[in-house]
Amino acid sequence: MDILASLVVGINVIVSLSWFLQAHKIIKRKSSKDISIPFVAVVLVGLAFFAIYAWREQDFVILIPFLVGMAGVGAVLVSALIYKKKVRK
Question: Which are the contacts of 63, defined by CB distance < 8 A and separation ≥ 6?
């Protein structure tokens, strides 16, 4: 892996880790009222398709950050579903 590829992986992993900050905020507040669960689910599906493509192409520069992103988005989705406030009608 050359220097540019290493930088791309490193920076994208750092960006992907930002999802864990959102998950931490949800868990700390015990509320996900400001989170769009459908949006997060769509992002997770999109990342999964990119990861599948990268796996098929054996492109680890793409695969590694997308796997980290999937873990972070998955953490947000699970914590948002756990702390979802039920709306009373």
Answer: 51, 54, 55
Task: Examine residue 48 and state whether it is found in any structural domain, yes or no.
Answer: yes
Q: Kindly report the CATH number assigned to the domain that includes residue 48.
A: 1.20.1280.290
Mean pLDDT for 55-63 is 93
* Token duo for residue 56: 């098929």
pLDDT at 61 over 60: yes
Evaluate whether residue 88 is within a structural domain. no
- In a domain? residue 89: no
Strand, coil or helix: 58: coil
Q: How far apart are CA 27 and CA 22, in angstroms?
A: 9
C-beta of residue 79 within 8 angstroms of C-beta of residue 25: no
3-state secondary structure 11-36: HHHHHHHHHHHHHHHHHHHCCCCCCC
